[in-house]
Amino acid sequence: MKHIYTYGGQQAQRHLTVGCLIKNKAAGIRMTQVTAFDGDEAAAAAEQGIDSLTIDCGMIEEVRAAAPHIFVTAAQYMRQYVTEDEALGGAIDTMAKGADAIYSPRGLSTIERIAREGISVQGHTGLFPARATQFGGLRTVGKTADEALALLQDFRRLEEAGAYSCEVECVAEEALAEIKKHSNLVTVTIGAGTSGDIILSYMSDLCGDNEHPPRHAKAFGDVLSIRKQLVAERSKALAGYRAAVIDGSFPDAATSVSMPAVELEKLKEGLDKLQPVHQ
Predict the structure, then answer these.
(1) Is the model's pLDDT at 102 over the cut of 70?
(2) What pTM does this model have?
(3) Residue of 6, 80, 81, 257 with fewest CB within 10 Å of its CB?
(4) What is the separation of C-alpha 217 from the centre of its chain, rounded to a whole number of angstroms?
(5) Catalytic: 169?
(6) Mean per-residue pLDDT for 196-204?
(7) Which residues contact 201 (CB under 8 A, 6 or more apart)?
(8) d(CA 93, CA 237)
(9) Which of 205, 208, 206, 201 lies closest to 224, judged by CA?
(10) Over the stretch 23-79, which tens digit does the pLDDT of each residue have?
(11) Res. 279 pLDDT band, cuts 50 70 90
């Protein structure tokens, strides 16, 4: 366990730091990263020894409370901030609340703006779903030598901008294996084979909770079947409840409270003595 101060000046402990990730890369130690969309998922990942989380930056407080010691990269999104100053302000706020790094999908100047403030930044290369039209649609990148060389240039530009890490999405495995020999970036990969320093998977994909998972995903559980069973049981319960209310079988004696017979008689006598209400 590493003792640290957060960007917000709070004492904390982490199983891993950015320095640890860089050392693990150099030592060839492969690490794991998953998404977490609430505190329960974050706590489950931490309990099972997952090395790091990637989360929506708006969830940092919930996730940090649920999993105080796991390494967290908080992701900004394309539509979230317009200007570099806004992105920097968001990054500072998120880091102050306990994030360990910021993922930015924006351009090099935004990454450089954030990195200049001493914030650990992760960029993105390979397939960029939000820019898929520039690639001719959703497809693997780096299957040709020219594309692979272009990816290396992306790596170098990110390093020059101050990024310590890069998410590499849907890149030919052999291309990444060769490119990473020429870069110091910690690679967080999804759909890019086994060469990544950190292998990323979406929680819904690895848990088998996605009706139509992407090609690069693999399910290690079957949460979807359980979820469907829950949906079926809920529908069954609602239908039964409605039918019972209509036919008068619910509420019943077991779910109702009765007055003692003596008190009921007193109530009736008292009501009989009341003056009738004129309509």
Answers:
(1) yes
(2) 0.89
(3) 257
(4) 16
(5) yes
(6) 97
(7) 32, 33, 34, 35, 190, 217, 218
(8) 45
(9) 208
(10) 999 999 999 999 999 999 999 999 999 999 999 999 999 999 999 999 999 999 988
(11) low
Looking at 62, 84, 117, 169, which residue is catalytic? 169
**Identity at 192, one-letter amino acid code:** A
Q: Give how far the C-alpha of residue 110 lies from the chain's centroid of Cα atoms, to the nearest Å.
A: 22
Among 55-64, 77-86, 215-224, 231-240, the minimum mean pLDDT is found in 77-86
DSSP the chain: -EEEE-TTS-EEEES--HHHHHHHHHHT--EEEEE-SSHHHHHHHHHTT--EEEEEGGGHHHHHHH-TTSEEEEEP-TTT-SSHHHHHHHHHHHHHTT-SEEE--S-HHHHHHHHTTT--EEEEEE--GGGGGGGTSS--B--SHHHHHHHHHHHHHHHHHT-SEEEEESB-HHHHHHHGGG--PEEEEESSTT--SEEEE-HHHHTT--SS--TT---SS-HHHHHHHHHHHHHHHHHHHHHHHHHT-SS-GGGS----HHHHHHHHHHHHTSPPPP-
Structure tokens at 53: 């989380």
